[in-house]
Amino acid sequence: MYGDELTIVYDSYSLSKTGMDQTGESFPLTFKMGAGRSAGYVYGSIPFVAVFGPTEWGVRGLSIVSGLGIIILMYFLGKKLLGDKVGLWASFLASISLWDIYLSRGGFEAHFALFLSLFGVVMFLYKKYIPMAVLFGLAIFTYPTFKLTIPLLLVALMFFHGFKKIFGEKTFIISILILAVFAGFSINETFKGVSDERFLNLNVIGDRDVKESVIQKINEQRNLSNLPNKAKPFIYNKPLAYTRILFENYIENLSPSFLYLRGDRNPRANPGEWGMFYLVEALLLFVGLHHLANNEKKSLPLLVVWILIVPLATMLLGQTHALRNNFMLPPFILISAYALTKITLKTKIVVVVLILVQLTYVLITIYGYAPNKFGSFWSEEAKIASMKAIYEPDKTKTIVLSTSIDNIEYAYPVYAKIDPKEVISQYGKYPKVYGNIVISDK
């Protein structure tokens, strides 16, 4: 378990035992240990932690179930928008999706948010508006980028299905009120200063390094430019510089390098070291778009707009990221699934064989190579040190664990299953003393 998983699973464990998170706050909506972590995944993990304890299964169980749920939801989404055969192919592609396999393997909040959001879209399409509102609301409290993408996608869904028709439904009006309540709680958490702290630290607008780089670039341009001095501020300025940065970030999130070749290069979300989709799916994308343009003029704009909406949130956070972009997964799968219904049987067989060959290679990489190369990205050293301390036979010996071991202060209480009351009592203190084990920041 890496840092986020360790803090999530222990907050779930602490809540289940004491009704407080590990900092001593009772049933918070935002968790301090995640630099303003949304509450959805922590509370959603409590049943799994109750069964498996603060373990890998405890923190990843919700993500595994989310992955299985996405397979089912893709069938109903595809069936509703493009027909039963497309739904079946979409379900199949979701079940072997590289992107979703990666997400299902870790305790990723964004994966649960994807499941909730996709469930909400399906509920909208089947005119179950009140469940839709609850699901969208929970997704907003699960991962920050969905606070922007869900409202935009909801507007798109309403547009493509007719505003007048939808607002004529009484249950839809009730659903909007429910969403407003969730939005109110979210805004309140933001103004309290505890929500979205991580976003505020990571976004390119507030990044000090980016700001310094922009200032240096503007000064260089103004000094080297032959334009009149009065004209230079209109051509070389911060708004235009940041607009270019955001545009480049936006395009990068839709680039072939990210989608099909190299992924986000983060070993946690891309241990197979390939793109987020199979190489052959790049061809299916073109085939699917061509046939959708000829046969499904209503569904095509919705799928394209869906894809284009997602990077609007992720472009603010700089580099491409598999977690922040995962809401693009359903429309891309639907387009590929539609393409598979339009090609010949022999071509289908070739496509499936190519997918299985790449999947085999990726799985070999994940299980035979990645653990040895990327163990440090999953706080392997912290687990090894914790287990050595736990199983030290001489309990009279004082063992000091230094915070120079990445995430050791979170790992030891998790692996040792320390009583949450003991952890809460030492929050913010160093050294932390758990019997003969001392966690020192020196």
Q: Could you explain how this protein is built, in words?
A:
By secondary structure, the chain is mainly alpha-helical. Helices cover 66% and strands 3% of the residues. The chain is built from 25 helices and 5 strands. The strands form 2 sheets. Strands 3-5-4 form a 3-stranded mixed beta sheet, with helices on one face. Strands 1-2 form a two-stranded antiparallel sheet. A hairpin with a 2-residue loop joins strand 4 (432-434) and strand 5. Helix 4 (56-82) packs across helix 20 and helix 5 (84-95) crosses helix 20 (329-340). The radius of gyration is 24 Å and the shape is globular. The chain starts with a helix and ends with a strand. The model has no long low-confidence stretch (mean pLDDT 92).
Short description:
The chain is mainly α and 442 residues long. The chain is 66% helix and 3% strand.
Core attributes:
3-stranded mixed beta sheet; 25 helices; 442 residues; 66% helix; two-stranded antiparallel ribbon; mainly alpha
The dominant shape is globular
Largest sheet: 3 strands, mixed
Task: Name the structural class.
Answer: mainly alpha
This entry's quaternary arrangement is single chain
Question: How is the largest sheet built, in terms of strand order?
Answer: 3-5-4
Order of helices and strands: HEEHHHHHHHHHHHHHHHHHHHHHHEHHEE
Overall pLDDT level: 92
Radius of gyration: 24 Å
State the share of residues found in helices, binned by percent. Answer: 55-70%
Uncertain regions: pLDDT < 50 for 5+ in a row?
none
